[in-house]
């Protein structure tokens, strides 16, 4: 990986308000893990299970908490949250190409589309009628921007992103390759055993500072817009159905599926593989663990899970067999409870007489 970035530890410390212990003139050219860092790379310790690699690391410097820095012989940038500071510094070493402003000769731009002169429009891009491409927007090769779409300042669309018509995107939104925004939702009415398609006449509205992963799909609304709030982070291969509402700063890991008209609050974390039925509401500050099936609304903040944890196959088969017997066992318990109640009542009657 080529990267010509060069920073001293003193400069990096000043950028994140860290306390530097060690050589301020040490030059840093990149980032790496504790195990793999070379003598010109910065590393960090954010998880206690990696502390064993700290003493032997060759890193030029390490982002550490005050406690972890005790006894460390190397250069240290001492901060309260090493992982957060690593995230901030990572952008200084990002090798992602920064395309120049302008429109590639092979792009097809509708006559009444507006493309800001500071935007970068790559090869094979199509921008349809009435679309508006804001300042400093990047459209990677073969992106499709449908009629009347709006992309706010600083948006970055990787190659082959598809925006159907009437998609409105805020500022500084990142969308990875293969994502499809504004596709038609799964809406059909039964007509004597056949399915009649319902026109999806809403759009999609996406706030500022949103990130959308590769091959994620966000369907347009049936009537009103599907809405994604500010600061929402969506991983790869997520399905968000029509009319879903996602609150500000909620994050979802890969392979989540959200059914139609579900409303998800702010600051929620949805782990990988979670499924949600339609027409439910999830309040703010909810964490849903991986592979959970959410079948009803959640009205109290907190952590929620469903399903069974992994176990050896032989044990799982035994558990599955017992699960099949639960109904019979529950009926037997009820019968035993009735018998105990009869015996208990008879004993009390005898003692009273």
In brief:
With 353 residues, this protein is an alpha/beta fold. It is built from five helices and 39 strands. The model has no long low-confidence stretch (mean pLDDT 95).
Descriptive notes:
- The protein is α/β, with parallel strands linked by helices and 353 residues long.
- 17% of the residues lie in helices and 27% in strands.
- The protein has five helices and 39 strands.
- The chain has an eleven-stranded parallel beta sheet, with no helix packed on it. A ten-stranded parallel beta sheet has the order 9-12-15-18-21-26-29-32-35-38, with no helix packed on it. It has a nine-stranded parallel beta sheet with strand order 10-13-16-19-24-27-30-33-36, with no helix packed on it.
- The longest helix is centred in the C-terminal third of the chain and has 27 residues, at 326-352.
- The chain is flat.
Report helical residue fraction. 10-25%
Number of helices: 5
Helical/strand content category: alpha/beta
The major β-sheet equals: 11 strands, parallel
Proportion of beta-strand residues: 25-35%
Q: Identify the strand order in the major beta sheet.
A: 8-11-14-17-20-25-28-31-34-37-39
Poorly predicted regions are none
Radius of gyration over all CA atoms, rounded: 28 Å
Tell the overall outline. Answer: flat
Q: Quick one: how many beta strands?
A: 39
Give the mean pLDDT. Answer: 95
Q: What oligomeric assembly is this protein in?
A: single chain
Amino- and carboxy-terminal Cα gap: 92 Å
């Amino acid at each position: 990986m080529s990267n010509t970035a060069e920073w001293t530890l003193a400069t990096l410390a000043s950028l994140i308000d860290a306390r530097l212990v060690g050589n301020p003139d040490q030059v840093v050219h990149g980032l790496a893990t504790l195990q793999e860092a070379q003598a010109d790379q910065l590393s960090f310790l954010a998880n206690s299970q990696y502390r064993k690699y700290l003493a032997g690391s060759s890193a030029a410097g390490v982002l550490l908490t005050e406690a972890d820095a005790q006894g460390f012989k190397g250069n240290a940038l001492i901060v309260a949250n090493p992982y957060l500071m690593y995230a901030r510094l990572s952008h200084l070493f990002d090798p992602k190409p920064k395309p120049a402003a302008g429109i590639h000769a092979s792009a097809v731009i509708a006559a009444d589309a507006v493309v800001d002169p500071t935007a970068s429009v790559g090869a094979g891009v199509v921008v349809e009628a009435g679309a508006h491409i804001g300042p400093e927007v990047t459209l990677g090769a073969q992106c499709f921007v449908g009629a009347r779409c709006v992309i706010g300042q600083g948006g970055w669309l990787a190659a082959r992103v598809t925006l159907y018509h009437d998609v409105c995107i805020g500022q500084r939104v990142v969308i990875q390759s293969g994502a499809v925004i504004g596709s038609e939702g799964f809406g059909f009415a039964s007509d004597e055993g056949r399915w009649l398609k319902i026109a999806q006449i809403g759009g999609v509205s996406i706030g500022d500072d949103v990130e959308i992963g590769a091959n994620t799909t966000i369907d347009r609304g049936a009537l009103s817009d599907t809405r994604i709030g500010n600061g929402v982070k969506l991983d790869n291969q997520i399905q968000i159905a029509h009319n879903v509402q996602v609150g500000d700063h909620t994050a979802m890991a890969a392979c989540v599926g959200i059914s139609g008209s579900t409303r998800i609050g702010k600051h929620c974390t949805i782990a990988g593989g979670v499924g949600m039925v339609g027409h439910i509401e999830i309040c703010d500050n909810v964490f849903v663990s991986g592979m959970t099936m959410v079948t009803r609304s959640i009205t109290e903040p907190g952590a929620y899970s469903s399903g069974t944890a992994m176990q050896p196959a032989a044990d799982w088969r035994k558990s599955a067999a017992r699960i099949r017997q639960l109904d019979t066992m529950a009926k037997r318990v009820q019968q035993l409870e009735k018998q105990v109640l009869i015996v208990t009542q008879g004993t009390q009657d005898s003692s009273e007489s």
